Each structure stands twice: as structure tokens, then as C-alpha cells.
Inverse folding.
């Protein structure tokens, strides 16, 4: 059956066991010319290794570290080495014709801030207008807001805001329509630009703010053999990364981890085929054979993914005996507490007693995880629905969780 995002449990468990919870991704900065009195007579090269969480803040810290090491002026180009991943062409509109949605962002060896801009809407009652901010704000993004502040309930506020994004001749975001004052401040995340354009734009935003200058252009390339390493940034450990992947069902982070499995097992460049081979070899080492298993990209955002409910339950039982069980179980949403389960089963006896990963696609609803029953016994639970009416299955799924918890 198609498990939707529940497939992330396979990806994250394989990652924890094959790479270890202390695994960290690196991002390197090289120079291919001399650095004298703060001036680099050459190119600055950033080489990525697939860090899933090179956020805007972490990217700022990376650039701040370059300034601390004496770099101020780059006379050459900013070169982006993205060669560690070779995932093939990615069409963000292929899955559901929503290319600007962050969940459709493709993987990249030099992924910065999930390749997404977070637009923040700030009501200004004294002007009857709405201030629109952006973080990050890739250079030269222009924001035009003619939103009117309106009354009434917040409700589906996005339906009242019309957005037009232009990314060809110039980078421009235009917002029109109405924004309810009762909403307070709200955020809208949008995936703009290609990976190299986005990284270059964020660099051009932050580097001048740090007192730096760039004379050349931004382009793809690779690290020359004679280049000198100036700084290496490290990601948070995998034990923390898997929490973001599973609790918030982050698709691009799951893709990054999945490709990393292939690169570590079969050397770079990373490809999806290498990753699937690594997962199958890992299962075989555990004495498990799942002939129906199909993993397209590791995130579950796929129409091709397949696994049986029985085999997923077997894997969860195996995981409970794994040395990385604490990190794995804690990465799943806790019923009525956090992640994708934070609003479900509130005020009920099962609240806070089950770690459950959910999955949602058109015609698919799924859940899998662990439940502690009222007698202190822990159970594996898996339920997958593949049907045109799958969107009506939540009541049955919640009933299953209640029943198992009731012992």
C-alpha cells in the first residue's frame, strides 16, 4: 500500500542505524586565490554535502565565521559546488501542480533555508494597512503590498490574500486583497527561485550586512584541487534532525537524508538508486525481506511508494529493540502534544501516550508508531487506508488509538 509520509519512518530509522545519531553534515568554504588584508584575489567556493538544516540563521553564522577569519572582499565569483548530490531533474509542479509550495522543494547538496521565503504579515491598524516582511529576503526581492486591513474573523485568511510572484525579469512579490486584523501576525512560506539563484540571493542579502563585498557573479562549479579550506560548518546531529523530519513531516529534509544514505554507502555523487540499494542491504542485514518495498525519494511524497502494513509493523518492532530506539521513538509526534498530532485526541486518555507518525495524500491516510496502554504495556500500531474516501478515515484511526490504549 502507499503509506504517504509514514515512509519517513523507514528513512529515519535507516539513517539513525547506518549513520548514527551523532552524524553531522558539513558545508565547506574554500578560496582559490590569496587572501591579503581582507581581500581575496580569487573565487570563494561553497561546497555542500546535503545539510538538511542549513537554515537562514546557520547560513548567517557560516558567513559570519568567514568574516571572523579575515575575509571581507571577494574579487572573484561566488562558486557553488553542488556536485555531492546527483538526484536528477526535479519538477516541483509534477506531484500536484503546486510548484511554490515548500513541501515540493527538491533536494540539493547546498540547500539553504529549505529554499523558501517566509513572508510575514503584520497588521498596522493606524494605517489600515498590512506590512509584509520576508525572511530571508534574497537580493533583489521587491515586495509590494497593497493589502487592506479588514474586520471579521481570521478564518481562512489565505483565501482573502492574493499573491503574484514574478521570478523571470525581476524578483517581485505583489500582495493584494484583504487581511483580517483579528489574525494578528501570520506567516506564508513560498519556494521561490532555483537552488543556485536562492543561495546567491541570500548571500547577496547577508554578505553586505556583514561588511563584505562581492565583485563577481554567482555560478555553479567545483572545488579546484589547489583550493584552500577557509572554514567548515557542521549541522546539528542526526538525532536532532530526525525530530524535524518526523514531527513536522519535512519532505525536503527527508530527501536530503535519503540521498545521504546512498552517498555514504556507495560514495558520491548521491543518487536515489544508491539510496534504495543501501536500504535494502540494511534490511537484509537485519534478516528482513520486504519484496513489495518501493521508495521513490525517502519522503513519502510519492504515488509510487509501497510497503505493507505488516512489514511496517515488523520494522517498528525491530526498531524498539534497536540501540537508537530512544532517538527514533522520540522523533515521532506525541498525541495531543506536538508535531502533526498536536490537535488530535486532546483531553482524551490516549493524549500524551502515543508516538504516532501520520501520512496524508489524496486517497491516502496512514499512521504508524507506538502506544503505551493503560496497563503499562507498549504496542506497535499501523493503519493504512488507500481509497478515494480515505479523507474520511480519521475517525476510525482515532478510534483505533483509543482502543489500543484502553488495553
Amino acid at each position: 500500500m502507499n503509506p504517504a509520509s509514514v515512509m519517513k519512518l523507514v528513512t529515519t530509522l535507516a539513517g539513525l542505524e547506518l549513520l548514527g545519531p551523532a552524524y553531522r553534515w558539513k558545508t565547506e568554504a574554500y578560496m582559490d586565490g590569496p587572501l591579503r588584508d581582507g581581500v581575496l584575489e580569487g573565487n570563494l567556493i561553497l561546497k555542500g554535502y546535503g545539510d538538511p538544516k542549513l537554515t537562514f540563521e546557520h547560513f548567517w553564522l557560516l558567513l559570519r565565521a568567514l568574516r571572523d577569519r579575515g575575509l571581507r572582499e571577494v574579487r572573484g565569483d561566488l562558486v557553488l559546488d553542488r556536485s555531492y548530490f546527483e538526484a536528477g531533474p526535479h519538477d516541483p509542479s509534477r506531484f500536484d501542480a503546486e510548484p511554490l509550495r515548500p513541501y515540493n522543494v527538491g533536494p540539493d547538496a547546498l540547500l539553504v533555508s529549505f529554499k523558501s521565503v517566509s513572508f510575514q504579515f503584520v497588521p498596522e491598524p493606524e494605517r489600515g494597512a498590512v506590512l509584509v516582511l520576508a525572511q530571508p529576503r534574497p537580493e533583489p526581492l521587491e515586495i509590494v503590498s497593497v493589502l487592506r486591513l479588514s474586520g471579521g474573523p481570521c478564518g481562512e485568511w489565505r483565501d482573502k490574500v492574493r499573491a503574484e510572484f514574478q521570478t523571470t525579469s525581476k524578483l517581485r512579490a505583489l500582495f493584494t486583497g484583504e487581511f483580517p486584523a483579528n489574525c494578528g501576525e501570520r506567516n506564508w512560506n513560498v519556494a521561490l527561485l532555483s537552488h543556485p539563484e536562492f543561495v546567491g540571493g541570500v548571500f547577496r542579502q547577508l554578505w553586505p550586512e556583514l561588511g563584505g563585498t562581492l565583485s563577481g557573479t554567482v555560478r555553479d562549479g567545483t572545488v579546484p584541487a589547489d583550493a584552500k579550506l577557509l572554514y567548515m560548518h557542521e549541522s546539528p546531529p542526526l538525532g536532532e534532525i530526525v525530530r524535524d523530519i518526523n514531527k513536522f513531516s519535512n519532505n525536503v529534509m527527508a530527501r536530503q537524508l535519503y540521498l545521504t544514505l546512498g552517498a555514504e554507502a556507495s560514495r558520491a555523487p548521491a543518487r536515489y538508486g544508491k539510496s534504495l540499494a543501501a536500504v535494502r542491504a540494511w534490511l537484509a542485514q537485519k534478516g528482513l525481506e520486504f519484496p513489495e518495498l518501493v521508495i521513490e525519494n525517502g519522503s513519502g511524497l510519492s504515488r509510487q511508494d509501497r510497503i505493507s502494513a505488516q512489514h511496517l509493523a515488523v520494522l517498528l518492532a525491530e526498531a524498539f529493540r534497536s540501540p537508537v530506539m530512544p532517538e527514533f521513538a522520540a522523533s515521532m509526534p506525541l498525541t495531543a502534544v506536538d508535531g502533526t498530532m498536536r490537535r488530535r485526541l486532546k483531553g482524551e486518555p490516549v493524549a500524551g501516550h502515543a508516538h504516532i507518525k501520520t501520512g496524508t495524500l489524496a486517497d491516502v491516510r496512514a499512521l504508524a508508531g507506538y502506544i503505551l496502554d493503560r496497563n503499562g504495556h507498549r504496542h506497535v500500531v499501523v493503519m493504512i487506508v488507500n481509497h478515494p474516501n480515505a479523507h474520511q478515515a480519521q475517525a476510525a484511526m482515532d478510534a483505533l488509538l483509543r482502543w489500543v490504549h484502553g488495553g
Observations:
- Residues 251-266 form the longest helix (16 residues).
- The domain at 26-103+195-234 is CATH 3.50.80.20 (D-tyrosyl-trna(Tyr) Deacylase; Chain: A;).
